[in-house]
Amino acid sequence: MKKLLTLMATSCLALGANAQSITIDHIDQTLANDYAGGCEIDVNNNGLKEIIVSGKPQWAEAPGRVYEDKDGNEVQSELQSWILKWNGSAYDKTEFPELCGLRAHIIPADFNGDGFVDLFIAGEAYDNSGVYLNDGKGNFKLDPNFKVKDLEGNVVNWYPRAADVADFNQDGLPDIVTIGWSAVDNNRQANCGVLLNQGDGTFKNVLEKGVIGNGDVDFEMALCTVRAYDLNKDGYPDILLQGNVDNADAKATTAGGVEVGRTFMALQNVGPMDDGSAAFFDMELGTGVSHQMGNGNFAVADFNNDGTPDIFVTGESPDDARPAGEWGFYPQLLIGKITKGDGNEVSYTDNTSFVARAKDIRPLNSNNVGIRAIDYNGDGFYDLFLDGWTVDMLDGSDNTQAGWFLPGSAAGLTSYTRIPGASEQGIFFFDNGVENALNYAFTGYHSDKTYFDDETAIKQGRSMVFTKNPWSVSIRPDAPTAPTAKVDANSVSLSWTPASSAMKNVTYEFYLKNKQTGKFYNNVCSFVGGERDGQRKVLREGNAYMNTALTINNLPEGTYEWGVQTVNAAFVGSTFAKGDDIVIGNGATGINNATSTKSNSVEVARYNLSGQAVTKLQKGVNLVRMSDGSVKKMIVVK
Asked: In what order do the strands lie in the sheet with 130-134?
């Protein structure tokens, strides 16, 4: 029989100079979900985060849910989902109403401005996708007003497999990006879109067909994931996506023109167009510095603390990454660099000193909890949790389902610690009743004999495994200073100065609150005011990303309170620094978004059709961003 002391000693050796150990606390076989989805979220505004976890149970101790179908018949589902709530000494488990699908994306955001965090849910073989509103007590109900419309205003079925939330046109309202495909009523369709929030519960897909595709048709994607992040710090969230391409007639292609059944894309957002659509262009990372990779995952964070977001990406690699006929995963760390000037052009280099580069580590879960980037050891740098079926073990041992903790540093991710882990897994962080605490946990298939043994209570197989964080709770960051707002008609430009103590990798969360209605106009996921001012309700970066200035367009008339906070790499928020009130129009309460009447708008950036910033207009179609946030098409014929 293996002794727990031996396991702890082995873990300590792996940590080396840190002399710290991530040790197993306990396991729960009833939470045995493979391909798990979920999120950490304060559902009832009590200052502690609950955990939503969904997936496919694989043990008798964790059966799928029995439910009644529309005809009143009992059905045994292959899926299950739970919400785990802290009761003062432990987590109580109750069934979460929605099963959420396989590899579910469960994305927190405040869609209706009531200060409670809502959810957008998507997943494989899931036909209840949509916005779920939180009543403030942790009860979620599908918004009856939720609909997806095309550009002509027609309501369309929309059941994506992957999703994320961001304000893509910077009007203050949370929008949604989705990918995947569905086959409702045997009508197969791609569900690729940028869904702009119309302010009434409905969303309009404004993404031009083929942008998430081969230029002509959309990719029908499976085993996929999508992420919104402002990569070039221009104020407009960009899009990263990855997955397997299921179309028979729309394969992804490598730089050499070879067709592959997978894709990795970074789409640059050049801002809202005059007609209300949005323009995105492929940055061609998947055929340049990286590869076309599917069935994998990625994380976006400033891993080397230089002030620019970096990208960790991994997935099944095609022939352009490995010799022909060889199959495996190919992790990379892409280091971002922004060239100041028109367009804030961002470029990437492949960090060859990345400790897991090209190692065959297979997470085998393509959703928002399959890979996690977060400051776990409290030193201010983003760390990476990389679990999976590991063929190329970093420590040279026999392959197994393993976990790897990669601590961040000024050089990026150059070292590792072996920790308990799994494949087909989801990674979560529990606070265990302590504000801002992080305790690593995962659910999936684990068979690492270094940490698990059938002769002990810490068994191999499938379960949720809970561990203890040996490091201290992250120190709360200082608030930014000098919050400034400048109003131009229905537009407001916000800016602030980083705290002198802030690391370069911090993000920012801002809020706009209508003083007449008391409603938050934009998506804010922190407490505002009171004893908990600035405390985060989710484990996400701030909604302003790494920007210290941005412009909100097309605001309704009204008087707005506003403020901004620092969010560190542990996703701990400072208090809010509050600026002077913002008055739009005559200050009266607006109901619908007003049409902007901006004046004296000038060019600030030009782009070609490849999405690259240019200094001169080129022959053909050009896109020109104006200082009022709009984008104009300009055609040069000579």
From this structure: 102-109, 118-124, 130-134, 140-142
Phi and psi dihedrals of 542, rounded to 5? -70, 155
pTM of the model: 0.90
Cα–Cα distance, 291 to 310 (Å, whole number): 16
Paired residues of 23 in beta bridges = 468
User: What tens digit of pLDDT does each residue of 612-628 get?
Assistant: 666 566 655 667 766 55
Secondary structure class of 464 (helix, strand, coil): strand
* pLDDT tens digits for range 556-608: 999 999 999 999 999 999 999 999 999 999 886 543 333 333 334 556 666 66
Q: Are 382 and 177 in contact (CB under 8 A)?
A: no
Backbone angles phi, psi at 287, to 5 degrees: -125, 20
The model's pLDDT over 342-382, given as tens digits with 9 standing for 90+, comes to 558 899 999 999 999 999 999 999 999 999 999 999 999 99
What Rg do the C-alpha atoms of the chain give, in angstroms? 24
Q: Which of 242, 243, 260 is nearest to 251 (CA)?
A: 260
Per-residue pLDDT of 66-87, as tens digits, reads 988 888 899 999 999 999 999 9
d(CA 284, CA 11): 40
Collect all residues with Cβ–Cβ distance below 8 Å to 551 and sequence separation of at least 6.
170, 235, 491, 492, 493, 494, 629
